[in-house]
Design a protein that fits this description.
The complex is a heterodimer of chains A (115) and B (316). Chain A is built from two helices and no strands. By secondary structure, chain A is mostly helical. Chain A has one domain. Chain B is mainly alpha-helical and 316 residues long. Chain B has one domain. In chain B, 83% of the residues lie in helices and 0% in strands. In chain B, helix 3 runs antiparallel to helix 4. The chains are: A mainly alpha (115), B mainly alpha (316).
C-alpha cells in the first residue's frame, strides 16, 4: 500500500470536513462574511487534500525518475554494444574485401605474366 | 558431398572453438514480441495523473461558476488555486511521460539488438569473395596446370564463402547473445523497481479512505454533494440552475466514474510488464535443458542453411 493508515485517515477526514463546510456555506441564514470565511476554509481543506495527494505522487514519481535514469544508462550501453556488433560485421566484410583484392591482384599478375 | 562434409566440419570446429552460445529463434521472437507488446506503455501512468487533474479542476471550476453568492474576490481566489494546481498536475504528468519514455526505448533497442540485419550484410561480401576465388583458381589451372594432369578444385570458392557467411554469422550472433544477456540481467532489478513505483503511483488513486471509497470515488461524491448544495443555494434565492451547467455537471460525474478505472488499468499494466520482463529474462538466461539446446541447434542449423544456400547459389 503506497499510503500509510494515518495519511488515508487524514484524507478521509479532510473529505468529510470539505463536505460539511460546503454544506454550511450554502445555508441562507449565514452572513456574507461567514460565507466568505467558510469559502476560504473550504479552499484551505481542498489545498491540504491536493497537497497530500501531490506528496504521494511526488514520492513515487521521484523514484520512477531515478530508475528511469538507471535504465537510460543501460539503453546507452546496449546502443554501444550494437555499435560494436555493427563494427564486427563491417570488419568481417572488410576482411572478405581485402582477401578479394589480394586474389584480384594475384589474378592480374598471372594474366600479365608477372607470376 | 565431400565439400559439404568439410564445410559442416569446419563450421562445427568454428562453433566449438568460439564456445558459441547463440540466441534461439523463440528467444529472438520473445524479445521482438516483448518490444511490440510494450510499445507506448510509458504513456499510461501520466494519463492517470491527467485524468485526476481534470476531474479536480472541473469540480473547482464548476463550484466557482455555480455559486452565485460568492464574492468576486473569493471566486478569483478559488479560480487561481484551481489553475495553479492544474498546472502542477500537468507538470507531474509530463515528468511521468518523460521518465517512462525510456521503457519504450528499452523495448525498441532490445529488438534492434537481436535483429538479423548484421548477419544478412555478410551475404554480399561472402558471395563476392567466393566468386573471385573460383575465378582465380580457374585462371591458375589454365595458366600453370594445363597439360600437367593436375587441377585445383575450382568449387573451393563456395566453401570459402560459406565459411565467411557461416562463421561470421555465428560469431556476430554470439556477440548479440552476450550483449542481450548482459543487458537484461542489468535491467531486471531496475525494471522491477520501476514498475513497482509505477504501481504505487497509480495505487495512490486507488487507495480507499475509511469510508471505503477510492480517491476518485470520493472526488466524485464531493462533486455531487457540492452540486446538490449549489441547487439548494440557488433554490433558496429563487434562482434556477440552467441546463448547460447541469449538463456539464453530469458529464463531469460520468468522467470521474470512468476515471477511476484508469488507475486500476495502470496498476494491472505495471504488474504485467514486470511479469513479462521477468519471463523474458528467464527465457534468455536459461542455457540448460534439452529444449533450449534443441532450439540452439536449430539456430545453428539456420546459420549453416544460410551458408549452404549461398554455396549452392555460387555453384550454379
Amino acid at each position: 500500500m503506497p499510503m500509510s493508515d494515518i495519511e488515508i485517515s487524514a484524507l478521509g477526514m479532510i473529505y468529510d470536513a470539505m463536505k460539511a463546510v460546503d454544506s454550511a456555506r450554502t445555508e441562507d441564514t449565514i452572513s456574507q462574511e461567514t460565507r466568505s470565511k467558510l469559502g476560504k476554509l473550504y479552499r484551505l481543506l481542498d489545498s491540504m487534500h491536493s497537497m497530500l495527494i501531490d506528496q504521494q505522487v511526488e514520492r513515487y514519481l521521484s523514484k520512477i525518475e531515478q530508475k528511469s535514469a538507471d535504465l537510460s544508462n543501460i539503453v546507452n550501453d546496449i546502443q554501444a554494444d550494437i555499435n560494436g556488433i555493427k563494427g564486427l560485421a563491417d570488419t568481417i566484410n572488410k576482411a572478405a574485401d581485402a582477401i578479394k583484392f589480394i586474389i584480384d591482384t594475384a589474378k592480374t599478375a598471372i594474366s600479365i605474366g608477372i607470376l | 558431398m565431400r565439400h559439404m562434409l568439410r564445410l559442416i566440419a569446419l563450421l562445427g570446429i568454428l562453433f566449438s572453438i568460439a564456445a558459441c552460445s547463440v540466441l534461439t529463434a523463440p528467444q529472438v521472437n520473445a524479445v521482438k514480441e516483448f518490444a511490440k507488446a510494450t510499445d507506448s506503455y510509458g504513456q499510461i501512468p501520466g494519463d492517470v495523473i491527467r485524468v485526476y487533474r481534470d476531474v479536480v479542476f472541473s469540480r473547482r471550476a464548476l463550484l466557482v461558476g455555480g455559486r452565485l453568492e460568492m464574492s468576486k474576490k473569493d471566486a478569483e481566489d478559488a479560480l487561481e488555486q484551481a489553475l495553479t494546481d492544474r498546472d502542477g498536475a500537468t507538470e507531474k504528468a509530463e515528468r511521468a511521460d518523460k521518465a517512462l519514455r525510456v521503457l519504450d526505448d528499452y523495448g525498441r533497442i532490445l529488438s534492434l539488438l537481436v535483429s538479423d540485419v548484421y548477419t544478412k550484410d555478410l551475404n554480399a561480401a561472402a558471395a563476392s569473395l567466393g566468386t573471385e576465388l573460383d575465378s582465380a583458381i580457374d585462371l591458375y589451372n589454365t595458366k600453370f596446370l594445363v597439360g600437367s594432369g593436375k587441377k585445383l578444385d575450382s568449387s573451393i570458392g563456395g566453401i570459402a564463402a560459406a565459411l565467411v557467411r557461416g562463421g561470421g554469422g555465428i560469431w556476430i550472433r554470439h556477440n548479440q547473445t552476450i550483449a542481450l544477456r548482459d543487458a537484461v540481467r542489468k535491467a531486471e532489478p531496475v525494471v522491477d523497481e520501476m514498475t513497482t513505483a509505477i504501481e504505487d503511483l497509480a495505487a495512490v488513486f486507488q487507495e480507499t479512505t475509511p469510508g471505503k471509497k477510492t480517491i476518485f470515488e470520493e472526488e466524485r461524491e464531493q462533486f455531487k454533494d457540492a452540486f446538490l448544495n449549489t441547487l439548494k443555494s440557488a433554490a433558496g434565492r429563487g434562482q434556477i440552475v440552467d441546463l448547460p451547467f447541469t449538463d456539464r455537471v453530469v458529464e463531469t460525474l460520468d468522467r470521474a466514474r470512468r476515471a477511476g478505472k484508469t488507475a486500476g488499468l495502470a496498476i494491472s499494466a505495471a504488474r504485467k510488464y514486470r511479469a513479462a520482463h521477468r519471463n523474458l529474462v528467464k527465457a534468455i538466461k536459461d542455457e540448460s535443458g534439452l529444449i533450449e539446446l534443441s532450439e540452439e541447434i536449430k539456430t545453428l542449423k539456420a546459420e549453416i542453411d544460410a551458408a549452404k544456400k549461398l554455396q549452392k547459389e555460387l555453384s550454379k
